[in-house]
Hints:
Layout: E1 4-14, E2 17-27, E3 32-33, E4 38-39, E5 46-48, E6 55-69, E7 75-90
Antiparallel strand pairs: 1-2, 1-7, 2-3, 3-4, 5-6, 6-7
Amino acid sequence: xxxxxxxxxxxxxxxxxxxxxxxxxxxxxxxxxxxxxxYEDCIKSCHKMLNxxxxxxxxxxxxxxxxxxxxxxxxxxLELEVSYDLWFRILN
Length: 92
């Protein structure tokens, strides 16, 4: 696959609030690859920014599974909907 290097800013929104992080990664036609995680199918939701060469932004939603032990010492699995805002600039 042909990957391009990018500088990105990703804001994660959930019921607990928001968290923003920035860094360098790679993209292909569909995915953003960071050091810790691959964000699948997020590139297609981004659009080119006006008057800003090589800059794109957009929003996407992913579902994440979490496991925890409840008060009755039972293992519980939940699927959470998490929304993101993504901005990136292609570097090469």
